[in-house]
Fold this protein.
Amino acid sequence: MNEKQIRDDFKLRLAGVEDGTYSFSISCKKEFFELAKISNIEDGDLKLQVEMSKTEKLVDVRCHFEGYVVAPCDRCLLPVTLPMDIDERLIVKLVPTVEEGENDDDDDIWVMDENTYELDIFQFVYESIFLAMPISVIHEDDENGNSTCDPEVLKKLEELSQKEEEKEKETDPRWDALKNLKFD
Ligand SMILES: [Zn+2]
């Protein structure tokens, strides 16, 4: 699939579409994540169920995402599979003329010209997945509380932290001199 084909999946046609409720299913797989470059997601398989209700003045888009994404572990860099189950909603007001400044980027309500041919939800889907990502991606501990990260990397990290500790233990003669200073 090329870029255009992937993007086309996210375009919901409005022109000539009668009022009513429509359902779509879009799948977000590796090609999508390669194109969208969301945070550090490398791969994934998300099924996106879209329900679009259209009236003359409003388009109400409800999205349900289910599946998983894959991102590198912050500690050992090996891939971590992150399950996702999200619901998001986008409301689009259809107006005869869109005034300048009417669209607020942070808003989940968009204002669009009533003659808009199609509604592109690519960016909306991108942001929904981005916001659902955890702040830190780390392999979970097993049932015994042991890290499931790459053992090689864990060993290296352990060695590094030991070296740091040893360094801290060595006393700096300048500190000793300062400690002996008396303030009267
Ligand atoms: Zn890890």
Observations:
- The pocket of zinc ion is lined by residues 73, 75-76, 78, 138-139, 149 (CB under 6 Å).
- The chain has a mean pLDDT of 90.
